[in-house]
TrEMBL record:
The keyword Magnesium appears for this protein: no
Pathway: Amino-acid biosynthesis; L-valine biosynthesis; L-valine from pyruvate: step 4/4; Amino-acid biosynthesis; L-leucine biosynthesis; L-leucine from 3-methyl-2-oxobutanoate: step 4/4; Amino-acid biosynthesis; L-isoleucine biosynthesis; L-isoleucine from 2-oxobutanoate: step 4/4
UniProt GO molecular function: branched-chain-amino-acid transaminase activity
Key words, A-Z: Amino-acid biosynthesis, Aminotransferase, Branched-chain amino acid biosynthesis, Pyridoxal phosphate, Transferase
Organism in which the protein naturally occurs: Gemmobacter aquaticus
Gene of this entry: ilvE1
Entry EC number(s): 2.6.1.42
Protein name per the record: Branched-chain-amino-acid aminotransferase
Xref: Pfam families: Aminotran_4 (PF01063)
Length: 285
């Protein structure tokens, strides 16, 4: 991804894609002082751009790393980099991090908080699983307690076990891994939230140890607007057997049906298809 044409927004200016570099003593590289956003632009408009910019600022605050831009400035920078690359349908990646500076150690108050925004064309996150239903492995790692790490932040440090779990899943022919949390409750996939259907009602984990995804919140709103009951609650591992349908939500994943988790299978049913179609219409509206 590094040696190609294009522009990347970095600290207030557009730079050539292949020149968008950082120093090896960048604090974030050593200590994970990094937060990010994944967004999608549809037909020239970023879906929930402001919500993503707000979450980025919030993630920075949670890591004691105030990002020196306003929501409006970040929104404008995203639009600027999309236009500079001539993209109207793209994935947008904003990343804020502690750079190199006065100090090189755990403390980093003297190091600047930097912001970069890149964008590129990105199709279906789970490929043809979008139609067939994704197969999920069960991660051996657990989502940590909010007393261990700020789980509400979209922070790079929370993704170390995601990469490891996703690699393990792919080695078994799965599209992704499902995490349980530190208490043993169903949590989330490595880059997406999870929903289940049983008897016409929907169940999804409480966002008390997972990322409260912007897609998750959108889909809950869509379901409730249709008069469908949504239970946000703690879901036990043993309940997986009784659910009829399952899907994942995320900016990259959009609404992707799940056909299998470990040994449990799910039908790619009517409600799953309806929500996936409705979401597609909504983001392009
Ligand atoms: N959980 C994790 C761990 C994620 O990385 C993502 C993707 N940002 C999500 C959930 C879904 O969040 P969103 O809908 O805001 O993209």
């Amino acid at each position: 991804y590094d040696d190609r044409d294009g522009k990347i927004w970095m600290d207030g200016t557009l730079v050539e894609w292949r020149d968008a570099k950082v120093h090896i003593l960048t604090h974030a590289l050593h200590y994970a002082s990094s937060v990010f956003e994944g967004e999608r632009c549809y037909n020239g408009k970023i879906f929930k751009s402001t919500e993503h910019s707000q979450r980025l600022l919030k993630s920075g605050e949670l890591l004691d790393m105030p990002i020196p831009y306003t929501v409006e400035e970040i929104n404008a920078a995203k639009d600027q980099v999309l236009a500079a690359n001539g993209l109207t349908d793209a994935y947008v990646r904003a990343v804020a991090f502690r750079g190199a500076g006065d100090e090189m150690g755990v403390a980093s108050l003297g190091n600047p908080v930097r912001l970069a925004i890149a964008c590129w064309t990105w199709g279906a996150y789970y490929g043809d699983a979008k139609f067939k239903g994704a197969k999920l492995d069960i991660a051996k790692w657990k989502r940590p307690s909010p007393e261990t790490i700020p789980t509400a932040a979209k922070a790079a440090g929370l993704y170390m076990i995601c990469t490891m779990s996703k690699h393990a899943a792919m080695a078994k022919g799965c599209s992704d891994a499902l995490f349980f949390d530190y208490r043993g409750y169903v949590a989330e996939a490595t880059g997406a939230n999870i929903f289940f259907v049983k008897g016409g009602e929907v169940h999804t984990p409480l966002p008390d140890a997972i990322l409260n995804g912007i897609t998750r919140q959108t889909v809950i709103g869509m379901l409730r607007a249709k008069g469908i009951t949504v239970h946000e609650r703690h879901i036990e591992a043993a309940e997986l057997e009784g659910f009829e349908q399952c899907w994942l939500t995320g900016t990259a994943a959009e609404v992707t049906p799940v056909g299998q988790i470990g040994d449990y299978t799910f039908e790619v049913g009517a409600l799953t298809r309806e929500i996936a179609t409705d979401y597609e219409k909504l983001v392009r509206a």
